[in-house]
Each structure stands twice: as C-alpha cells, then as structure tokens.
Amino acid sequence: MDKLSRRDFNSTLAKGTGAAALMSISPLACAMGTPKTKKKLGVALVGLGSYSTYQLAPALRDTEHCYLAGIVTGTPNKEQIWANKYGIPKENIYNYQNFDDIVKNESIDIVYVVLPNSMHADFSIRAAKAGKHVICEKPMAMNVEECDTIIKACKQNKVKLGIGYRLHSEPYTQEIKRFVREKTFGNINYISADAGYRSMSNPEQWRLNKKLSGGGALMNMGVYAIQSVIYGTGENPISVSAQEYSTRPDYFKGTDETITAQFEFKSGVVGSIMTSHNIRANRLFASCEQGWFELDPASTYIPLAGRTSNGKLNFPQESQQKLQMDDFAKHILFNQPNKAPGEMGKRDMIIVEAIYKSIVEGGEKVDLNFSTNYGFGG
Ligand code: NAD
Q1: Does residue 308 contact residue 284 with C-beta atoms inside 8 Å?
Q2: Class of domain 6-163
Q3: % of the chain residues with pLDDT over 70
C-alpha cells in the first residue's frame, strides 16, 4: 500500500471516508468506466453466504489492488453487520431489487457474483449493463447458453469478465502448469483428478436442488476436476465418456451423487476424473514418461500440498482469494492477462454438458471440438 499503512487504511475506511480519500479520479476516465488513475478498485460482493463471509471479504482486507467497497444482499439484517465490520458506507449497500442503481455508483468497479448458480447469469448481466467489471463464481452458469449471454453482455458493455477459478493464481497450481509447459517430466501419459466431499448437512440446501444448482457434484466439485485435467495437461479434451453412481438416493433426490468420466486428448494422454457429493477426494496425479507429479489436496483453499518423482513441493501459503482478486484487478488496471476468462468458464460448461449427455446415452463417447486452448489462462 502506498502512503497509508494498512491499519490506517482500514481505520479510515471504517469511518466511511477511505474510498473517496484514497482515490484520485480523472473526469475523463470516470466517463469511460474504471478510472485509470485509481489506486485500488472497489469490489461489491453479491450474495453474503459462506464463501463471501469466510473467504472473499477477509481476503479483500489484504488485497493490494482492490478492496471491499460495497455489498448486495437479500437479507436486510446482514446490511448493518457488514457495514460495521467492513466500514461500508450506506450508499454502497444494495439489495437484489435496487441492485441496478449501482450504475450510478462510481466507487464500485467490480461486481463479484457469489450467489447460487441459477442466479449467476442474471446478476452478471445486470452488473455488465451497469458498466461494472464482473467476477462470476464457478460454475459459471446453469448451461452453455447462459455462459454465452454473460460473455456477450460483458463484451457489449466493454467490461472485463473473470470466473472465480482461484487456483490459477495459486503457486502449487502454477508450478504444475510450469511442469506441463516445460515438460519437466517429459510427455504426460495419464492424468487423473478427483474432487469431492461427503455431504451430510441439510438435504434442502440449494446445492442439492437442481433448479438452483443446475446439477450436483459435477456442477459443484466436478469443475475443479475438469480444470485439473486441463491445466495438468495443457490441452482441451477431444472426447469424454461418463458414468453416474447413486448409493444414497434418499438424500440425493434430484442431483448427481458421484460421476466418473474418461477423457481423450489429441496428444494421446488418457484422462480420468471422479467427482462426488458422497466421497472425499481432492487430488491431481499425472504419470509422465520421466516421472510423475501430484497435488493432494489439489483444490481446497486450505493450503495445497504436492509431490513429484523429484521430491516434495514447498511454496509459501497465501490466501488464494487475495491472489485471485488482485490478479483480476491487475488485468483491469494494468492489462495483465485474465487468468480465468469467461470463455474458460464456458469451455468447462461445454464439458459438463457433454458428461451429462454421455451419461444419458449410457456412457457413449461424446466428441468435443475446441478451437482455443484456455488451459493455462495466462
Ligand atoms: P451459500 O449457500 O453459503 O450462500 C448463498 C448466498 O446466496 C446466501 O447469502 C443466500 O442468502 C443467497 N441466496 C439468494 N437467493 C438464494 C436462494 N434462492 N437459495 C439459497 N441462497 C440464496 O453458498 P456459497 O458457498 O457462498 O456459494 C455461492 C457461490 O459461490 C456458488 O456459486 C458456489 O459454487 C461458489 N463457491 C465458490 C467457491 C470457490 O472456491 N471458488 C467456494 C465456495 C462457493
């Protein structure tokens, strides 16, 4: 942080004057969207559930290029609690109905959509129309068609779009990408990725309600496994075959419990994933011509860990969310690469849809035809 210490900054913010005091905004830049001279971009979190409360908002205390400037909530009693805790001025607090008024609020640059999946497209598009840059949580939307509408809205309104794929900013994941890029262990022959947990809580939760989630384990944890096999090979798959397993049908009434899928890649790599709401798993493993590499855990936001045939990996631990949001802010402010663009979220949704299609067709192979490689994402 430049002239103010972080403690000074937070206490100034708590008095509700920090944002205005810190920003020097050129009128021309204001007229064109994000002011070019802003030191820190203002983020508004939409949806103050568990991820916003315990991960994103705390991380935004430490980010260097953005800060928590506003909130959008459907729960009135959260307004004052968050205002007090994070020094959010009244004029930066919205509900789902008056959210579109955010267009007039120059202290909000980025809208971060952290709602149930069925609400991602609506709020991302409304944010884009309000001229705000958008971070949309994973999975990007309910289906590929919705992904297209979000991407189109962001393009039309000339705002940036990022997906909440925090791992692309995380050091262990970046090291895996380096192994792939530099062929540290030679060509990869086989990659597998598992992502799941055992869901025991309220069966009425939105994640188990298809209308709100779009699907079960695959939509929630499966996208991590899909991501892993792609950045772990540096390739998009050319086909997928999939199977679904159900052992607790009374609990998982309308959404998938466990799914396995096998991928083919153009280079000849064979890939395999397992995702579940009933089995704990969190791993990426690649067998290569001259060794192997592994992350376990591979996608949690508690510290990741990894090993290779050459020994243990060891990187300093930092909040993944802090790194991710700073990377997105740097994309806006300094034109640095967008590590998780909307097209990447759409690609994963194409794969999700292909997996569901294969299951419906009794495990038949479904061809995939990607012309762009979003495997590294900058
Ligand atoms: P959550 O259930 O804890 O919070 C959901 C929020 O949405 C709550 O504030 C709730 O009040 C609000 N909401 C509005 N309408 C709702 C409705 N009809 N039903 C239920 N809640 C409603 O969920 P979460 O864990 O914070 O997840 C939110 C989003 O963030 C999801 O898309 C999820 O996939 C994503 N997420 C991403 C990560 C990650 O690591 N990138 C981690 C957790 C969650």
Answers
A1: no
A2: alpha beta
A3: 89
Query: CATH number of the domain at 168-316+342-367, please?
Result: 3.30.360.10
Regarding the beta carbon of 331 and ligand 1, being less than 6 Å apart is answered no
Q: Give per-10-residue mean pLDDT for the chain (378 aa).
A: 32 32 33 60 98 98 98 98 98 98 98 98 98 98 98 98 97 97 97 98 96 98 98 97 97 97 97 98 98 98 95 96 98 97 97 98 97 60
- Cβ of residue 50 lying under 6 Å from some atom of ligand 1: yes
CA-nearest residue, atom 13 of ligand 1? 115
239-251: pLDDT as tens digits: 999 999 999 999 9
Kindly report each contact of residues 177-181 with a partner whose C-beta sits within 8 Å and lies 24 or more positions away, as own/partner.
Answer: 177/231, 177/234, 177/376, 179/286, 179/293, 179/308, 180/231, 180/232, 180/233, 180/234, 181/234, 181/376
Question: Rounded CA gap, 158 and 37, in Å?
Answer: 18
**Ligand 1 lined by 96 (C-beta under 6 Å):** no
Q: How far apart are CA 302 and CA 319, in angstroms?
A: 9
Q: What pLDDT is attached to residue 39? A: 86
Which ligand 1 atom sits nearest the alpha carbon of residue 51?
Answer: 26
Indicate the top mutation candidate among 45, 48, 114, 201 to test ligand 1's pocket, ranked by most ligand atoms within 8 A of CB.
114
User: Is the CB–ligand 1 distance for residue 166 below 6 Å?
Assistant: yes
Give the residue, by CA position, lying nearest to ligand 1 atom 22. 116
- Domain segments of the chain: what residues? 6-163, 168-316+342-367
